[in-house]
């Protein structure tokens, strides 16, 4: 019975981790940006969904949270990332470190703004579906099952976009050979705008689902960014499939530790795994040198 409970809970939390990390790694793979305001984007989506649900219901709140996530992603791009990338006073070889610093500070600003306008207390988004489902004798919140389904549905939609559409194939080409893509007549700025839009959707969905599943507070912004970054490094920078594999490794390690030892130590085994992988395989589980 305990094994089945771990299997179900681990699958749901791993799906959430995977969705959050996919947007992070897609951004890096296509545009080379490590967005350290990632947790802030998810936080805004969750908090807006929580606030709006009282007025427009759970479904309307989820839509508002998704829109807020997209708006925050675009704000990050237009107010922080693009001005740094286009600045003539910043040497080209130092652009990445300025983007890292800028998005980190932007994420802190988002965290403090959420704390100021709401509270630092955890917020739980109203679930889309209430009730409990029994699976082989294990009672599981229906919303937990829905969370896993929606996460994988979103990841599946991303796979279809990237592999079955012209725009998606342009994104894939930009991650492999951006110079070659420009020679074919594509404008890289438009490609980057598209990837930020996709990222906003992924982060928005992940934030809303996370808020309904575990709840969030303004203090979680840094933790969410660190978690996504760790999963992306573990799976291999720029590797979407690697991020998904790493998300399930981390998700199940944390779930098993919580049930068998203590929730207070849930992060330790995944951190040990991360250190081991970085030491033995620096490119990550499915990354390339």
Structure description:
The protein is an all-alpha fold and 289 residues long. The protein has one domain (2-280): ABC transporter involved in vitamin B12 uptake, BtuC (Orthogonal Bundle), CATH 1.10.3470. It contains 10 helices and 2 strands. The chain has helices at 2-31, 38-86, 95-117, 142-164, 166-176, 178-183, 188-213, 220-235, 240-260, 268-280, and strands at 132-135, 138-141. Strand 1 (132-135) and strand 2 (138-141) form a beta hairpin. The protein is globular. The model has no long low-confidence stretch (mean pLDDT 87).
List the secondary-structure elements in sequence, H or E: HHHEEHHHHHHH
In the CATH classification, which architecture applies? Answer: Orthogonal Bundle
Number of strands: 2
Counted by DSSP, the helix tally is 10
Total individual domains? 1
Top CATH class: Mainly Alpha
Strand-pairing-aware structural class? mainly alpha
How would you concisely characterize the structure shown here?
With 289 residues, the protein is mainly α.
Characteristic terms for this protein:
single chain; 289 residues; mainly alpha; ABC transporter involved in vitamin B12 uptake, BtuC; two-stranded antiparallel sheet; 10 helices; 2 strands; 75% helix; globular
């Amino acid at each position: 019975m305990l094994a089945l409970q771990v299997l179900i809970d681990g699958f749901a939390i791993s799906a959430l981790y995977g969705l959050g990390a996919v947007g992070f790694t897609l951004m890096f793979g296509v545009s080379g940006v490590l967005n350290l305001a990632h947790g802030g984007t998810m936080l805004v989506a969750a908090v807006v969904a929580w606030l709006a649900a009282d007025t427009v219901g759970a479904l309307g709140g989820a839509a508002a949270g998704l829109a807020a996530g997209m708006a925050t992603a675009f704000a990050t791009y237009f107010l922080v990332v693009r001005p740094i990338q286009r600045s003539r006073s910043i040497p080209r070889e130092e652009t990445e470190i300025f983007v890292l610093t800028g998005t980190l500070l932007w994420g802190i600003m988002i965290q403090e703004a959420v704390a100021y306008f709401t509270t630092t207390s955890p917020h739980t988004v109203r679930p889309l579906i209430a009730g409990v489902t029994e699976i082989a004798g294990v009672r599981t919140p229906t919303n937990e099952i829905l969370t896993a389904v929606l996460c994988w549905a979103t990841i599946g939609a991303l796979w279809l976009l990237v592999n079955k559409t012209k725009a998606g194939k342009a994104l894939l080409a930009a991650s492999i050979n951006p110079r070659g893509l420009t020679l074919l007549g594509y404008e890289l700025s438009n490609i980057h705008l598209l990837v930020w839009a996709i990222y906003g959707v992924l982060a928005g969905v992940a934030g809303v689902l996370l808020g309904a599943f575990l709840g969030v507070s303004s203090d979680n912004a840094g933790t969410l960014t660190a978690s996504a970054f760790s999963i992306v490094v573990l799976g291999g920078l720029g590797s979407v499939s690697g991020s998904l594999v790493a998300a399930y490794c981390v998700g199940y390690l944390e779930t098993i530790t919580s049930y068998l030892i203590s929730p207070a130590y849930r992060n330790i085994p995944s951190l040990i795994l991360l250190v081991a992988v970085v030491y033995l395989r620096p490119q990550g589980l499915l990354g390339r040198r």
